[in-house]
Amino acid sequence: MIDPVLDALSWISILGGVFFMIVGAVGVVRMPDVYTRLHAAGMTDTMGAGLLLLGMCFQAGPTLVLVRLILVYAFLLFTSPIGTHALASAALSGGVEPYRVPVEDAGRADSLRGGENS
Fold first, then answer.
1. Percent of the chain with pLDDT over 90
2. How far apart (Å, rounded) are the C-alpha atoms in residues 34 and 17?
3. Can you say whether residue 95 is alpha, beta or left, with left for phi > 0 and alpha for psi between -120 and 50 degrees?
């Protein structure tokens, strides 16, 4: 039988992971260009999957499954940033331009940041 405290920590981690996965999915749909979508997907992968795996680790207890879950997370920590960087580099070398603020909004953006036009 699992300890109620571990069960609560497990469900908090799993629900946190689901939250980050949903927010990341919305970010991938809503962002304006490839580079910001890659950022949303990378954060989802690292944070959301990490919290989901942490919750599963709490549920697994000290077994061989725990070791496998830790290895899966280690694999994600190495491959997710590398894959995101490779996709961004390929997009840049393929000529995909980053999103730019339209000219009519540029003065407003500078004033919000405290730039020259303020």
1. 29
2. 24
3. left
Structure tokens at 118: 């303020």
Distance of CA 99 to the CA centre of its chain: 20
Amino acid at site 47: M
- Indicate the average pLDDT of the chain: 83
Q: Tokens for 86? A: 């490779």
Residue 84 CB coordination number (10 Å): 18
Whether the per-residue pLDDT at 105 is higher than 80: the answer is no
3-state secondary structure of 32: coil
Residues in CB range of 110: below 8 A, 6 or more apart: 116, 117, 118
Euclidean distance between CA atoms 44 and 64, whole angstroms: 26
